[in-house]
Specification:
The chain is of the alpha/beta class. The protein folds into two domains: 118 residues, Nucleotidyltransferase, domain 5; 109 residues, Nucleotidyltransferase, domain 5 (2-Layer Sandwich), CATH 3.30.420.40. It is built from eight helices and 15 strands. Strands 1, 2, 3, 4, 5 and 8 form a six-stranded mixed beta sheet that branches. Helix 7 links the parallel strand 14 and strand 15. It binds beta-D-glucopyranose. Beta-D-glucopyranose (BGC) binds next to helix 3.
Length: 255
Amino acid sequence: MSEPGVDADGATIVGIDIGGTGIKGAPVDPVAGKLTRARYRLETPRPADVDSVTAVVGEVARHCGPADRIGVTFPGVVTGGVIRTAANMHPSWVDVVAPERFAEVVGCPVTVVNDADAAGVAEVTFGAGRGRSGVVIVLTLGTGIGSAVFLDGKLLPNTELGHLELDGTDAEHRASELAREREGLTWPEWAQRVQRYLRHVEDLLQPELFIIGGGVSKRADKFLPLIQTRTPVVPAALRNEAGIIGAALMAAQAG
Ligand code: BGC
């Protein structure tokens, strides 16, 4: 067993989750899959351009204390640390080599991964998808819709299922938590949209389990009982901490 807050090599790992509304971080015990201190959160600056967001990431990292490695999530496609898309962030992010950029402000090596992939990795390792084989899909409903697709616990990264078409537009414009708030939808109205979206995804990929994450997963009792799909649907067990924990876990694995 490792010390709390350090990985098996004795390194201190911090996870930072960049979301559309908040940037949250905490030191994480990547062996236990738990935060070792309360998370620290700052608002996502608007416009969410590279310099402003990087400065906030630096500030969150300072509050988390010294780290040997930091994992950071980003709400867009990330391949080999390079940001490829930034649907809900400023376009200045596209083509940025994010680990280098963040390392300048945090002063240690950084691993950068897609936000939903990180949340998904945390859920299949420690949460609602633990020990599940077959195809498991984690969907985060927040500012956008993020997706993480697993086969027998192994991630297929950057699946971006939030951008599937629903009602002639991006699914995330219709069925995200932001869409519910922006349009003032009742829970049943929104649940109908989420149900149509889930049915579309299950027709494409035939998963064995859907795990619903994002901030709204705290209120799963308001909408999950209203949703009927062939596939069982459960709320994320790690709730909104999944991104921080998954980021730290992926950084620990990369180190
Ligand atoms: C982005 C995804 C991200 C999701 C949730 C989408 O708009 O394209 O990469 O995972 O939002 O933040």
